Amino acid sequence: MNDCIFCKIAAKEIPSKAVYEDEEIYCFHDLEPQAPVHVLIIPKKHIASTDEIMPGDLGLMGRMMGKIGEIASGLGLENGYRVVINCGEDGMQTVKHLHMHLLGKRKLTWPPG
Ligand code: 5GP
Ligand code: ZN
User: Fold this and answer.
1) pLDDT tens, 74-94?
2) At 26, phi and psi to the nearest 5?
3) pLDDT tens across 1-24, in order?
């Protein structure tokens, strides 16, 4: 996806502060953190949203989920954290490349706004 900002970040065409990376997953600090720790975990492959996850993506989705604990632990989130995926207009998704927000190091209120 030529015009996708997160594809460009994954390809290092746009700089970001890396937290974790492997062949298919990238994790980097959010530009406008909403908590003392706020990182984004993305598939390097362009998937627009949770609505666009295909059966062939499920292994990758599982591997992304499987990295959360390791990334959280590396960021010192032993007291807990929140993982958020926004989707679509009502979900207030602003970047149309699937991403998990990982937020922590403060008490996160519920319900979200
Ligand atoms: P969404 O609202 O789509 O769930 O989340 C998009 C997130 O991407 C926002 O938290 C926003 O701050 C972050 N973001 C948008 N553009 C950039 C960027 O160029 N670099 C980084 N590191 N984060 C970005
Ligand atoms: Zn993309």
Assistant:
1) 999 999 999 999 999 999 999
2) -135, 140
3) 579 999 999 999 999 999 999 999
Ligand nearest to the CA of 33: 1
Pocket test for ligand 1, best of 4, 37, 95 (most atoms within 8 A of CB): 95
The residue contributing the CA closest to ligand 1 atom 18 is: 31
The residue whose CB lies within 8 Å of the most ligand 1 atoms, and thus the one to mutate among 20, 40, 86, is 40
Domain residue spans of the chain: 5-104
In whole angstroms, what is the distance from residue 48 CA to residue 32 CA? 21
Does the pTM of the predicted model rise above 0.85?
yes
Tell me, which fold does domain 5-104 have in CATH? HIT family, subunit A (3.30.428)
Strand ranges in the chain using DSSP code E only, listed in sequence order:
18-21, 25-29, 37-43, 81-84, 100-104
Catalytic residues: 99
